[in-house]
Amino acid sequence: MKTLEYSFQDWTITTTKSHILPSKCSCHEDIQCTVCRYSNELTLPSLPDMIFSDNILKIEHKDLKSGIFFNALNALKKVNDKQDDIKVAISKAWSRANVSASLEVTHEVSNPFDWTFTTDYQGTLFGDGLQIAPTDKSIDLNKLKEKETILFFDEIHLYEDELADHGCSSCTVKIRVMPSGFFVLHRLYLRVDEVLIRINDTRLYYERGNNSMIREYTSRESKTEDLTVPRVFWGNPNEIVNYLPVIVSKCDELIFS
Question: What's the rounded Cα separation, in Å, for the pair 224 and 90?
Answer without folding.
Answer: 11
